[in-house]
Structure to design on (461 residues):
């Protein structure tokens, strides 16, 4: 495709050959290597609207980017137009008195966490601070505080969106409630989000959190024990056991260097004493080979995993919800991890429930409120390696775990997958979402996402 002239109205825009284009076209997953015709970097909602209309008029495929962490690479497009909000729209402002937090559509989790913690507040979000707030929130938002405060969408109170028609609108429980419902779990299907308004929660600067690390040969008994232990805990405790390979460096003891391990990630959103007490049974059952859990600043918790998932590596993921973590499921999973193809890969198990489960499945577009566990298989390897063994390991591990799956899949963990899996991500909310899509994006301009095709007839009542 030939070069596309840069319309001046677009403001800050990069095309192939421009200084900064090579850097700006890259997304987190190095496996995704696309060359957009234009990368527009808006400064406000009206510049976003101009870019949306430009893509429409010129019939350019349109991608929208915040943190760029979509594993299947939805936030870039070959020969199309990318609206990248991360360059100039990353601001966060906090009104401590009303506990309202306004977040621009290109902000990263780290900016949100730093701004809220200045006031002893928090908006529950994800595990890695370089993820985008908008992308994570639109799919739901799981993280360290979810059993206490719910998913990220459960703290969302209003959204400013640029629609496919280039209109700047606000959605909340009072204004366009159907659109607000759809934005809470419906992915990037309904427009470009230029601002999110959250209600923050009080959280001291320190909480009991971190990781308890064990060699993989103890993973079977520990996963079973941790499952039963976590069921007895209050909602203040959220746990994420992870199968991963220990890096060859301190603080990991030499005998674990380069060895597969179980790291039981924990966060207790309550008083420090109660958090320490909550961890006691686990530590008594099996003293960890490395104990990295204790009182720590919330900001340290929120950046603890950043270095392990850097930009530019090659990634492929598959996920399922699991109701029960049965002995057979544990045996299969640990057995698969014993054959992991890359020391960079991991399997994440998130214990759901708590505040997440106290909201009805149709109250927001996120339907999987009753899921027991989130299983997330992430295959990661170096750019110079043959991808096949790593793709194969993730696919085979996914196949092996299917007998234990509860059905459906988390939107934020979808790979590039067939239509029926995308539908399953929205479960019983699909029909209503498709009707709302028809109202706000009838031509499916916003289709680089876990895509909801507009319903063919009948607008929602
Ligand atoms: P992008 O690639 O920029 O966007 C992802 C999708 O959202 C695209 O379809 C894009 O078009 C759309 N989108 C982004 N911004 C906007 C906007 N302003 N308006 C409209 N649509 C928009 N998920 C969790 O729930 N919890 C976690 O703890 C978690 N940790 C992660 C850690 C890593 C290292 C990675 C790679 C992913 C993680 N995820 C997690 C998944 C993550 O939430 C999704 O990949 C999410 O879509 C990423 O958002 P982003 O803004 O960074 O990505």
């Amino acid at each position: 495709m030939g070069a596309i002239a840069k319309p001046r109205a677009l403001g800050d825009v990069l095309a192939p050959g421009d200084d900064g284009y090579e850097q700006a076209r890259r997304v987190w997953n190095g496996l995704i290597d696309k060359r957009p015709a234009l990368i527009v970097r808006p400064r406000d909602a009206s510049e976003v609207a101009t870019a949306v209309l430009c893509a429409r008029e010129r019939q350019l495929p349109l991608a929208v980017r915040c943190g760029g962490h979509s594993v299947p690479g939805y936030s870039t497009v070959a020969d199309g137009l990318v609206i990248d909000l991360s360059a100039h729209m990353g601001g966060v402002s906090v009104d401590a008195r009303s506990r309202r937090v306004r977040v621009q559509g290109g902000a990263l989790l780290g900016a949100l966490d730093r701004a809220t913690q200045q006031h002893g507040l928090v908006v529950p979000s994800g595990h890695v601070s370089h993820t985008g707030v908008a992308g994570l929130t639109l799919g739901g938002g799981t993280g360290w505080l979810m059993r206490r405060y719910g998913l990220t969408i459960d703290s969302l109170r209003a959204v400013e969106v640029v629609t496919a028609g280039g209109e700047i609108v606000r959605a909340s429980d009072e204004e366009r409630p159907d659109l607000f419902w759809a934005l809470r779990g419906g992915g990037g299907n309904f427009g470009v989000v230029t601002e999110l308004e959250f209600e923050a929660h009080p959280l001291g600067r320190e909480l009991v959190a971190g990781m308890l690390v064990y060699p993989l040969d103890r993973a079977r008994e520990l996963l079973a024990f941790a499952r039963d232990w976590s069921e007895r805990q209050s909602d203040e405790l959220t746990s994420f056991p992870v199968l991963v390979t220990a890096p060859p460096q301190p603080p990991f003891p030499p005998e674990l260097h380069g060895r597969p391990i179980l790291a039981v990630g924990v966060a207790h959103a309550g008083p420090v004493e109660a958090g320490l007490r909550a961890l006691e049974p686990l530590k008594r059952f099996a003293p960890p080979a490395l104990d990295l859990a204790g009182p720590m600043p919330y900001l340290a918790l929120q950046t603890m995993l950043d270095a392990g998932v850097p930009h530019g590596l090659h990634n492929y993921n598959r996920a399922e919800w699991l109701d029960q973590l049965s002995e057979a499921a544990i045996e299969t999973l640990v057995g698969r991890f014993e054959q992991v193809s890359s020391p960079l890969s991991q399997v994440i198990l998130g214990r759901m429930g708590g505040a997440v489960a106290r909201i009805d499945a149709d109250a927001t577009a996120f339907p999987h409120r009753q899921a027991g566990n989130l299983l997330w298989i992430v295959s990661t390897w170096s750019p110079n390696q043959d991808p096949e063994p790593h793709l194969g390991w993730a696919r085979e591990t996914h196949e092996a775990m299917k007998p234990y799956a509860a059905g459906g899949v988390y939107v934020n963990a979808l790979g590039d997958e067939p239509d029926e899996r995308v539908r399953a991500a929205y479960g019983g909310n699909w029909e209503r979402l498709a009707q709302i899509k028809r109202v706000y994006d009838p031509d499916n301009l916003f289709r680089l996402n876990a895509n909801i095709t507009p319903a063919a007839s009948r607008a929602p009542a």
Remarks:
- The first strand starts at residue 13 and ends at 14.
- The longest helix spans residues 219-232.
- The pocket of flavin-adenine dinucleotide is lined by residues 28, 64-71, 74-75, 85, 105, 126-128, 131-132, 134-136, 138-143, 188, 192-193, 309, 412, 448-449 (CB under 6 Å).
- The chain has 13 helices and 19 strands.
